[in-house]
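Hi support team,

I've been running sequence recovery on a batch of backbones for a student project. Most finish fine, but this one hangs at about 90% for roughly twenty minutes before it completes. I'm not sure whether the input is malformed or the queue is just slow. I've pasted the structure tokens below so you can try to reproduce it. Let me know if you need the job ID as well.

Thanks,
M.K.
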């Protein structure tokens, strides 16, 4: 053991270290100084056993430099890592707070300096400051989670989140009331006069029974009457749009904005208990938000060629950053970006039909992967496939050739728009098959034990109809999900493709470390975090026949149906949301320094992460492990087989 003089020269003062280390830095100054004064500087060489399983934990050890491996006996008595602790992390905190003996061995990984704090002194501080106990014992402690999310928004996305009216207010709170309406038999001029009297941009039309029959907006007057020199004495019902798009009064303003963008409308009727109580417009919501992707949508709809679409898509990172700065959560941003890409695809596929001529059979574009779940990020092109209606025998070759060329052109245009010579993804939009062929494709790949085949089949289970004959796409999606959900062997094959062989355990010494102690400099947010959790949730929903498009809505369905423990659902949902924020922030950070979409990735440098983010990732990794254990528990599966 080194002498104390050398130890003191190598270690910093406790007060300095405690002040710079969470959660001690958040304590009242007088409490922090009491802890620092009571802390003793200590040292142990590599290989020293600090605690053993079953041993009473008497002191808190706060690591200043070096590291500690927390482990349990594994196979063949070899230790299996449970955690890896580095500078600023504590050994024994959870055991002290819970009054438990050590459940693991704690061994120095390197020559380690640490501060030793008597257990009773630490516990007294925890009693006075509950946040201290929450930091060490709770999964995703609320205060620290919010701070970590704010940190991601500020450092990578642009700004912190302030008041968020578009997400906090409901449409019922901003709707215009009372409703301005008129009988459908009234003249166009009478309707225009009534709108002018009330100063509104739309008017509802009622039928003879008093029910809402349609809506007329100022746009209808401009394009259906004035531009054509129409007769103003005609019944106003002749220019109405029907049915009226409605939204529940409890819906958040962001949800209403999403409906408007999906339906391509600017006015929504607000309902309460089946009765229309007011109207809300896109202008109302934009006035709350200040910035919106609405202008980008309008420009996409007006574009006439692929090159103009490519220029418009360069605005996607700015749109995402604006939403994040204005307080949107990462899941909200993902939904909005997916809707932008859906609009781009609609224009691309419409332009292709103009080039190739009318399609010989009804078809539907199916979005896959992140696009299928509506969880896209900047720099990620949409993945998808084409399904077309089974043709009669004499039309089979013609349909095959047309849609093969159609899919090739779609892929080429997406590559041009993304400035990316290689569109990533399992299908990459390059495959087109008839309905029956897709059904056979799924069955064949789902029955194949090769992981790559199972992965392709599983991808089809998450498909989302986007463009074309949506009922055709929905019918195929329903067929595939029903086949998968009732076949335990298929679900077993899918489950073996979800989780990495060595999932991450901790971030230690600037590396992402697994249970074996192997470390990597980068953490792939999608491959090692989001993809396994999203797949786990999708698989559970498949097995139980539950609906949902987004990962978080699927988790809510699992919770509400009682298929998954509410506490587990909450932890996994929080992990998914945190990873979405980390991934989005990383992508926006790359865009901010000028990276092109094709150059963006999900590889976060572990050494660059803030300690608070590292603390949250510890709980994320635990949630991934919990999901993996739940899957094994429910199905009796593991990576080796059934």
């Amino acid at each position: 053991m080194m002498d104390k003089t050398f130890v003191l020269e190598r270690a910093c003062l406790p007060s300095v270290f405690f002040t710079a280390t969470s959660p001690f830095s958040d304590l009242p100054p007088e409490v922090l100084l009491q802890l620092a004064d009571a802390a003793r500087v200590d040292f142990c060489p590599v290989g020293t056993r600090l605690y053993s399983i079953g041993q009473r934990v008497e002191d808190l050890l706060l690591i200043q430099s070096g590291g500690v491996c927390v482990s349990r006996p594994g196979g063949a008595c070899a230790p299996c890592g449970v955690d890896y602790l580095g500078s600023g992390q504590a050994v024994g905190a959870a055991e002290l707070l819970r009054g438990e003996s050590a459940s693991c061995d704690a061994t120095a990984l390197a020559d380690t300096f640490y501060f030793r704090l008597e257990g009773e002194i630490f516990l007294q501080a925890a009693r006075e400051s509950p946040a201290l106990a929450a930091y060490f014992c709770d999964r995703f402690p609320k205060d620290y989670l919010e701070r970590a999310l704010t940190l991601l928004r500020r450092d990578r996305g642009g700004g912190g989140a302030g008041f968020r009216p578009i997400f906090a207010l409901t449409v019922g709170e901003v709707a215009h009331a009372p409703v301005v309406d008129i009988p459908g038999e009234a003249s166009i001029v009478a309707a225009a006069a009534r709108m002018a009297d009330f100063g509104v941009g739309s008017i509802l039309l009622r039928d003879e029974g008093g029910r809402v029959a349609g809506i007329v907006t100022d746009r209808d007057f401009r394009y259906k009457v004035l531009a054509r020199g129409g007769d103003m004495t005609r019944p106003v019902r002749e220019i109405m749009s029907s049915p009226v798009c409605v939204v529940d009064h409890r819906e958040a303003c962001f949800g209403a904005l999403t409906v408007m963008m999906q339906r391509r409308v600017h006015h929504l009727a607000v309902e309460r208990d089946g009765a229309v109580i007011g109207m809300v417009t896109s202008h109302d919501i934009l006035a709350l938000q200040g910035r919106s992707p609405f202008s980008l949508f309008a420009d996409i709809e007006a574009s006439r060629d692929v090159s103009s679409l490519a220029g418009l898509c360069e605005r996607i990172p700015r749109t995402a950053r604006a939403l994040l700065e204005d307080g949107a959560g990462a899941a909200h941003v993902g939904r909005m970006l997916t809707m932008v890409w859906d609009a781009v695809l609609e224009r691309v596929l419409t332009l292709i039909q103009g080039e190739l001529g009318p399609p010989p059979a009804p078809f539907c574009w199916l979005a896959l992967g992140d696009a299928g779940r509506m969880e896209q990020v900047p720099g990620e092109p949409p993945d998808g496939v084409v399904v077309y209606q089974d043709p009669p025998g004499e039309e089979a070759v013609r349909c095959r050739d047309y849609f093969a060329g159609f899919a090739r052109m779609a892929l080429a245009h997406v590559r041009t728009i993304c400035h990316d010579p290689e569109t990533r993804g399992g299908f990459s939009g390059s495959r087109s098959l008839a309905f029956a062929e897709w059904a056979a494709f799924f069955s064949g790949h789902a029955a194949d034990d090769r992981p790559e085949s199972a992965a392709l089949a599983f991808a089809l289970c998450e498909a989302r109809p986007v463009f074309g004959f949506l009922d055709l796409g929905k019918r195929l999606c329903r067929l595939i999900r029903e086949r998968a959900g009732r076949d335990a062997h298929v679900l077993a094959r899918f489950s073996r493709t979800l989780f990495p062989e060595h999932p991450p355990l901790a971030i230690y010494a600037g590396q992402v470390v697994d249970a074996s102690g192997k470390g990597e400099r980068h953490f792939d947010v999608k491959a090692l975090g989001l993809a396994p959790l999203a797949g786990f949730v999708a698989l559970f929903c498949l097995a139980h026949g539950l609906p949902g498009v987004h990962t978080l809505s699927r988790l809510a369905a699992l919770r509400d149906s009682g298929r998954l423990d509410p506490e587990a659902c909450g932890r996994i949902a929080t992990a998914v949301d945190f990873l979405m924020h980390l991934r989005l922030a990383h992508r926006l950070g790359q865009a901010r320094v000028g990276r092109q979409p094709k150059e963006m990735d999900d590889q976060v440098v572990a050494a660059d992460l803030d300690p608070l983010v590292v603390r949250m990732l510890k709980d994320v990794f635990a949630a991934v492990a919990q999901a993996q254990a739940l899957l094994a528990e429910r199905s009796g599966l593991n990576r080796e087989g059934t």
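--
Follow-up from support: It reproduced on our side and the slowdown came from queue contention, not your input. The chain is about 50% helix and 15% strand. No action needed from you.
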